[in-house]
């Protein structure tokens, strides 16, 4: 049975991966800083406390379990917090990856070739080109973006025989006890509470359902695919359009959504105006087939109904 170690198992993607991998009969080593918030009771599931900035904890976990695949979802994901705390961001998003790579390089032999799958972002680009391919040239605009690009370079320069970088974009979905919300849930909750929200009309993305992202990562693991893969949604829209679609889908008051420009919203970190990921490589090589945004909203609605 293949052993897959997940970092950041308490996070949105981490939770989806654990759930899907267990249903596919993998042995899952879920790791998070702090306690297990998903608590699966399953014979193929084990939980390890692991702070990815702690070299000894990383080394112990990797040496003890010798996972066939490591999916590194853990990161400091709040872009504005990264801008305000660049040291923490560097430690969690770049140094941690350097440590993982160093440990895996030292464990790698002819018999043991771990597959290291690392999560990156559309934010490594400057937002001047719509629908980016894996070959487009990055130009990060923020501390977060830079930390992720540096982590990519560490992996690309490494002597690891099997690595993949998964670039994803604006992830949404439902998970247990989440430490962060996401755009879809935030818009829905705000409108339900009759709050007026300012939403940018000049930023464009291809939003990604967390389940689709997990499927993309699993396809990479199953195909032992290497290199860079864009794993995102298939619908391109502005954040304003996205918010309106959420309002329409959940029958909420769209007039509470105020169209704004990025320059009118005070945010510490600069965002790339237009991104969007071209997913044709993943579709062709992996058979990746994400849901439409409306289908994704229907899945979110169903999960929220089960939760309440
Ligand atoms: N969400 C997006 O829109 C988006 C877009 C592009 C790329 N990505 C990338 O995709 C990956 C997954 O994102 P996500 O949406 O699942 O993010 P998430 O829900 O914020 O999950 C990230 C997890 O990382 C954990 N973490 C942070 N620092 C850690 C540390 N030092 N040691 C161990 N765990 C740590 C967090 O732990 P706590 O729960 O304890 O805080 C959290 O559970 C990330 O690498 C992110 O950069 C995400």
Query: Which CATH architecture of the domain at 3-172 and 209-232 and 276-291?
Result: 3-Layer(aba) Sandwich
Radius of gyration: 19 Å
Give the helix proportion (percent range).
25-40%
List of distinct ligands in this structure? NADP nicotinamide-adenine-dinucleotide phosphate
CATH topology of the domain at 3-172 and 209-232 and 276-291, what is it called? Rossmann fold
Helix segment count?
10
The helix-strand sequence is: EHEEHEHHEHEEHEEEHEEHEHH
- Would you state the CATH class of the domain at 3-172 and 209-232 and 276-291? Alpha Beta
Strand order of the largest sheet: 3-2-1-4-5-6-11
The CATH homologous superfamily of the domain at 3-172 and 209-232 and 276-291 is called NAD(P)-binding Rossmann-like Domain
Task: Sketch the major β-sheet.
Answer: 7 strands, parallel
Number of strands: 13
Strand content: 15-25%
Mean pLDDT: 97
Low-confidence stretches: none
Instruction: Output the structural class.
Output: alpha/beta
What's the overall geometry? globular
Report the end-to-end length measured between terminal Cα atoms: 35 Å
């Amino acid at each position: 049975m293949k052993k897959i170690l997940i970092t950041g198992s308490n996070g949105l993607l981490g939770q989806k991966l654990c759930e899907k991998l267990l249903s596919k009969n993998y042995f899952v080593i879920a790791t998070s800083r702090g306690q297990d918030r998903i608590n699966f009771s399953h014979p193929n599931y084990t939980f390890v406390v692991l702070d990815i900035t702690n070299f000894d904890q990383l080394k112990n976990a990797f040496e003890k379990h010798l996972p066939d695949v490591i999916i590194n979802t853990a990161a400091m994901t709040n872009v504005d917090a990264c801008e305000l705390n660049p040291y923490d961001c560097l430690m969690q998003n770049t140094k941690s990856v350097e440590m993982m790579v160093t440990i895996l390089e030292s464990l790698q032999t002819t018999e043991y070739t771990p597959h290291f799958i690392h999560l990156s972002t559309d934010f490594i680009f400057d937002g001047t080109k719509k629908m980016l391919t894996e070959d487009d040239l990055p130009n990060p605009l923020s501390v977060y973006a830079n930390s992720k690009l540096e982590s990519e370079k560490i992996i690309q320069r490494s002597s690891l025989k099997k690595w993949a970088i998964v670039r994803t974009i604006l992830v949404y979905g439902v998970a247990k006890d989440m430490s962060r919300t996401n755009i879809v849930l935030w818009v829905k909750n705000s409108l339900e509470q009759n709050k007026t929200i300012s939403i940018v009309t000049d930023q464009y993305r291809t939003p990604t359902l967390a389940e689709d992202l997990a499927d993309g990562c699993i396809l990479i693991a199953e195909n032992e695919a290497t290199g860079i893969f864009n794993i995102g949604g298939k619908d391109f829209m502005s954040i304003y359009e996205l918010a309106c679609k959420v309002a329409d889908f959940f029958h909420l008051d769209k007039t509470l959504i105020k169209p704004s420009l990025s320059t009118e919203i005070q945010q510490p970190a600069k965002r790339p105006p237009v991104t969007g990921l071209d997913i044709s490589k993943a579709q062709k090589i992996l058979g990746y087939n994400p849901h439409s945004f409306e289908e994704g909203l229907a899945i979110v609605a169903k999960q929220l109904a089960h939760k309440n």
